Amino acid sequence: MNGFSGILRRELRLALAGGGDMLTLVLFFVITGALVPFAVGPDRELLARIAPGIVWIAAFLAMLMGLDRLLRPDREDGTLALYRLADLPLSAILAAKVIVHWLTSALPLILAAPFLALILGMDPQTFWRTLLSLLLGTPALAAFGTFGAAVTVAIRRGGLLAPILIAPLCVPVLIFGVGAISPLGGPDQAGAALLLLAALSLMACALSPFAAAFAIDWGEE
Amino acid sequence: MNGFSGILRRELRLALAGGGDMLTLVLFFVITGALVPFAVGPDRELLARIAPGIVWIAAFLAMLMGLDRLLRPDREDGTLALYRLADLPLSAILAAKVIVHWLTSALPLILAAPFLALILGMDPQTFWRTLLSLLLGTPALAAFGTFGAAVTVAIRRGGLLAPILIAPLCVPVLIFGVGAISPLGGPDQAGAALLLLAALSLMACALSPFAAAFAIDWGEE
Amino acid sequence: MSLVAEGLACGRGGHALAADIAIALAPGQGLLLRGPNGAGKSTLLLTLAGLLPPLAGSIRYAGHDAEAGPALHYCGHRNGVRARLGVAQTLDFWAGLNGRTGLSIAAALEEVGLAGAAGLDAGYLSAGQQRRLALARLLVTRRPLWLLDEPSAALDTAGQALLARLLADHLARNGLAVIATHDAIAVPDLSVLTLGEAA
Amino acid sequence: MSLVAEGLACGRGGHALAADIAIALAPGQGLLLRGPNGAGKSTLLLTLAGLLPPLAGSIRYAGHDAEAGPALHYCGHRNGVRARLGVAQTLDFWAGLNGRTGLSIAAALEEVGLAGAAGLDAGYLSAGQQRRLALARLLVTRRPLWLLDEPSAALDTAGQALLARLLADHLARNGLAVIATHDAIAVPDLSVLTLGEAA
Amino acid sequence: MTIDTTPKMRWWDRLAHPGQFLAWTGYLVWPLIILTALLFALGLYFAFFNSPADYQMGDTVRIMYVHVPSAWLSQFVYGAMAVSALGTLVWRHPMADVSMKAAAPLGAAFTAMALFTGSMWGRPTWGTFWEWDGRMTSTLVLLFIYLGIIALWRAFDDQLRAARVIAVFTLVGAVNVPIIKFSVDWWSTLHQPASVFRADGPTMPPSLLIPLFIMFFAFTFLFITLQVVTMRTEVRRRRVITLERKAARETGA
Ligand code: HEM
Ligand SMILES: Nc1ncnc2c1ncn2[C@@H]1O[C@H](COP(=O)(O)OP(=O)(O)OP(=O)(O)O)[C@@H](O)[C@H]1O
Ligand SMILES: Nc1ncnc2c1ncn2[C@@H]1O[C@H](COP(=O)(O)OP(=O)(O)OP(=O)(O)O)[C@@H](O)[C@H]1O
Ligand SMILES: [Mg+2]
Ligand SMILES: [Mg+2]
């Protein structure tokens, strides 16, 4: 476990010290969301109606965009090869990566979400539900994303490829995530969507480290 | 002029031969747009209303995402340093880059736009107006984007930074672009928006190669 | 522990670069890999490390207890050193990940001559210093087999001497080593395997 | 044309690596830069090329008509060769960009021994062949000053001879050259400037 | 072609040489702090005790004394940054780099403050925290630009190179900000009736204007003080980095 927490520490240290990556991601999230009113017009009612969807899509895109920095730097400086020879199994290392990815790209977005909610004119109740659904749903995005990064890490210019590959896989997360906020079928439906979201996140987090480890072991060198 | 057309030829050849970059971008565009119905719910009327905005935002994001491949490969293999010693001035080379960026990332999106319009249930008239506004507005995005790529080319892991920097500067393009489509202020306003869009594109295309050349000359090595 | 490889073929993308290689290393023995550029030295090392699948043949680590963790250290062209992490932090990270079965962090840094730079950002290190840091990684976790790819690259004369001393120590402690290099390594009694002679 | 640099200091990020350098090259003269790793040889070449600003001092290219385009060719570690472009296409591109004032494409490829590979994808070339292609770029556009950074890297013996021949030709045609290298270059009468001796 | 960079020491070079700068601004910091504190004390006294509550907005009008100066500074700081950028590009002055770098977070902070106080004010006066009004929207975009510049500074390892590139970007931004402002105004007047929620400047009674002006000066001096302090920290930080790198170079290898 020493190695596991070591990875968490190292990655968090890099993320906090490192080159404003987290700031860039949060900015991407907020800017993407804030662009929408320019595109659909500053109609308060319309905006409030689509606001949860916008927040989710912006979070979705931002998390996908952050994928490139998850494994590629490790591959480029040779760390990834060493991970494969570490005492800790590769899947445990990748589980740590999932956690770190969530902490460094989902958590900042969730913290920045109130700002976006404010300018999109979300009402407080919807806002809390959005926050809850983001909290439950983003782990699945982090897990799927780590898998996507692992699949594309061996490709030299794979920058946009991981998002493209992963986006279709993540559509259910988006559907349940938004479903948990604006319950067209009433509160029952919203509860069901939240449960499904949590189940999806749990399953994805449990399985993706193994799938990602496979992808790296088979694809590397 | 020989060198200028040489650059155009080279870049187009690379883009066409090269690794499905263009396909990835188009997929990103379509997927981003297609995610929206999942996020805001399948309400046809609502979708049709926000469709032009969505197409514009998706195009906007896709063009920003394509920035990373514009100058970075040239820098990494040493071509950029040689460009600075070429007979052709750097600004002319960058003007060629603007054109190529438009041809390889805006044009494919415009060609793929009908598909997205179909998914979002746009009516034909709006669709043609959207196409026209994309045609007039994307050159400005290409020009600003080239400038953003030039500013961040010296940074090793600058992937998301150029989009972040450029997006706020491109807000006017988005505003006039959408303004030219859904003329809430009547056809007069739409005409004005189109004119402003064209003016913006012209100005951006004329000035950005010089600004980008400055940024490269001052920031390199 | 001893290493035995028989009928080994290695290569990239299904294309064999070197075939029918036989290696037998007893405890305390070192092997130098030599050969022209592109002969497949690096590829062979990666195959021995298990990072590339062998195209044919077998590799056995006799007498190694699999429970005790991986049998080998690989040290390639890329040092796995990241800017914005401290020198001691980097080493501590690897020690935690691989197991603290060797020297302490401070002792290892002292050994490779980086004691003065312990608190520095590893990104400020010159190429030679980064290579020393990579060597220190081999010291904090004890593993019987060292696979070194051009370990002397970027090292100056003092660094070369350091490398030879570390290697001699390791072999004296019944370790094994396979080293691909173009340079001379001042360690006595290394056997030599030359690849790609025909090419 | 002749090159005169006086009191030149060059460095990275405001930190001077080499200071007070004086260079005077008359037509037909070549200069070898020598020195240990990190002495600043590559940095000096970049400064001479105008790609890095000098920290102090002046560089003059006397007798060069600025109308005729840049006075120099720079050939660095990275070859500017891109996969998915043909060999002849690559060369043609550079000729178009820099001006076709030298050999024809075919003649230049012939000269560097790549005539057979003209139609190949440049990404398939080995490192040595890519370096030859980079040298061919110097032949298709005639410029008086050549700045070469480790030109012999990755070249085999035949390649080294080729390089020496090209250099001798260039100097014989009243060209100038500054070459940073660790290898021996078989061209007579090169003057030598050694950097970083004190360090 | 001649490149001549023999250093010519002009008086402003000497005054703004990093070492000299630390020396003479050392005498300036405390007086600036005291002046700023006095101005704030005076301004806040006027604002809270010596100005009338608005007949419509009540006591919330007092937010104005923070909101308007910070909104004003959000633009002023960009101007200061653009001038510093010119200093970097035209005179290649190291202190201009430092000034540019110091101003970015300050500008972002003032802009954020304008947004925050504005929306705090908006809640009681027009019932919502945010309205896509032209002025507010362009302030928001300005905040994004500031934050982008901060991210850019953080991404560069070599601060000298960073300064020149960011200077170019800052100047392009300076050309663009008016265009953004115009387009946003066009957009929001097009789409919604002009919201008449603010008093017009000139019609303000003097009892409001005087404290407002004092607060203007207080905020401006706050900016100047913070700018000087941040620049001093930055100069020192750079020295430490230089020393560290030198140490790394000298530890052998
Ligand atoms: C987040 C919301 C807001 C933002 C971003 C904002 C931004 C600005 C800006 C940029 C200025 C211009 C300063 C100058 O030109 O020097 C300004 C001035 C002003 N604002 Fe706001 N504002 C906001 C909300 C409000 C609200 C809610 C009120 C009052 C109900 C208000 C009242 C004023 C007044 C009275 C002035 C000064 C008079 C003038 O220049 O016309 N603002 N604000
Ligand atoms: N990642 C890779 N993918 C595919 N082929 C590769 C890769 N790396 C190297 N090769 C090819 O494999 C061959 C052998 O490379 P290898 O690195 O094993 O040679 P080497 O003997 O170590 O040479 P050197 O002395 O230059 O280190 C070369 O022809 C090279 O082109
Ligand atoms: N891009 C860069 N940015 C900042 N510093 C650099 C950069 N490249 C090199 N350096 C530093 O500049 C110093 C000199 O490098 P330079 O490449 O000029 O040395 P060199 O004499 O060419 O060495 P070599 O023989 O290894 O080629 C080194 O200490 C290096 O760390
Ligand atoms: Mg090798
Ligand atoms: Mg060099």
From TrEMBL, chains A, B:
Residue ranges crossing the lipid bilayer per the database entry: 12-40, 46-67, 102-122, 134-155, 161-181, 193-216
Main localization category: membrane
Alphabetical list of Pfam families matching this protein: CcmB (PF03379)
Compartments reported by the entry: Cell inner membrane
InterPro entries hit by this protein: Cyt_c_biogenesis_CcmB (IPR003544), Cyt_c_CcmB_bac (IPR026031)
Domain of life: Bacteria
Protein biosynthesis as UniProt keyword: no
Example GO molecular function: heme transmembrane transporter activity
GO cellular component: a single term: plasma membrane
Membrane association type: Multi-pass membrane protein
Record-stated family: Belongs to the CcmB/CycW/HelB family.
UniProt xrefs under NCBIfam families: ccmB
Function: Required for the export of heme to the periplasm for the biogenesis of c-type cytochromes.
Protein name: Heme exporter protein B
Naturally occurring in which organism (per UniProt): Devosia elaeis
TrEMBL record, chains C, D:
Keyword Hydrolase in record: no
PROSITE patterns registered for this protein in UniProt: ABC_TRANSPORTER_1, ABC_TRANSPORTER_2
A single GO molecular function term of this UniProt record: ATP hydrolysis activity
GO biological process entries: cytochrome complex assembly
UniProt keyword annotations, A-Z: ATP-binding, Cytochrome c-type biogenesis, Membrane, Nucleotide-binding, Translocase, Transport
Domain annotation ABC transporter: ranges: 3-198
Keyword Translocase: yes
NCBIfam families: ccmA
Family statement drawn from the similarity comment of this UniProt entry: Belongs to the ABC transporter superfamily.
Entry protein name: ABC transporter domain-containing protein
Originating species: Devosia elaeis
From TrEMBL, chain E:
Pfam families per the UniProt record, alphabetical: Cytochrom_C_asm
Gene Ontology annotations for the cellular component aspect, listed alphabetically: plasma membrane
Location (main, coarse): membrane
Keyword Cell inner membrane: yes
Domain Cytochrome c assembly protein: 19-191
Annotated TM spans: 21-49, 69-91, 103-122, 134-153, 165-188, 208-229
UniProt keyword annotations, A-Z: Cell inner membrane, Cell membrane, Cytochrome c-type biogenesis, Membrane, Transmembrane, Transmembrane helix, Transport
InterPro entries: Cyt_c_assembly, Cyt_c_biogenesis_CcmC, Cyt_c_biogenesis_CcsA/CcmC
GO MF terms, alphabetically ordered: heme binding; heme transmembrane transporter activity
GO biological process: cytochrome complex assembly
Record membrane topology: Multi-pass membrane protein
Subcellular location: Cell inner membrane; Membrane
UniProt record similarity statement: Belongs to the CcmC/CycZ/HelC family.
Function in brief: Required for the export of heme to the periplasm for the biogenesis of c-type cytochromes.
Protein name per UniProt: Heme exporter protein C
Gene expressing this chain: ccmC
